[in-house]
Design a protein that fits this description.
This protein is of the alpha+beta class. It is built from 4 helices and 5 strands, in the order αβααββαββ.
């Protein structure tokens, strides 16, 4: 089996990941969800589209609702068994998953997300936080 040259390897790595900085508003969420869907199909991860697109929408909605200025970085990576999605923002407040009341009109997103994906978590950063999730069982690297 031939080895990959550094430039080819770097190109392959870029093809398996994309990152974007954005300011979130409702129209942005819709466009980014479509972009993620298209990228997953390109990466041959169409069977993970529903979970990933739902999760991206929920994480970006939380940025829009809770992060002053709505700025964040979205990082999507293809993994051996699915995808890993992370959103980094400048707000140090960590998300809290709560069981929503049955008649609640909001507060369901993160609860539904954590029960819809393979794994999820948060990381405190020097300038905010990262909230991430994975969609496949083979996602050993976070």
């Amino acid at each position: 089996m031939p080895s990959l040259s550094p430039s080819h390897s770097a190109a392959a790595q870029r093809a398996a990941r994309f990152e974007m900085s954005l300011r979130v508003d409702p129209a942005t969420i819709h466009r980014v969800r479509r972009l993620v869907r298209d990228r997953l199909v390109e990466w041959e991860r169409a069977d993970h589209v529903r979970e990933a697109v739902f999760g991206v929408g929920e994480l970006l909605a939380n940025v829009h609702k809770h992060v002053p200025g709505g700025r964040c970085v979205l990082d999507v990576r293809r993994t051996p068994g699915g995808v890993r999605v992370a959103v980094r923002d400048g707000d140090p407040r960590m998300p809290v998953v709560r069981q929503p009341e049955w008649d609640s009109e909001d507060g369901r997103g993160l609860f539904l997300l954590v029960h819809s994906v393979h794994d999820w978590g948060t990381v405190r950063l020097p300038d905010g936080k990262e909230v991430w999730f994975t969609t496949g069982p083979d996602d050993a690297e976070h």
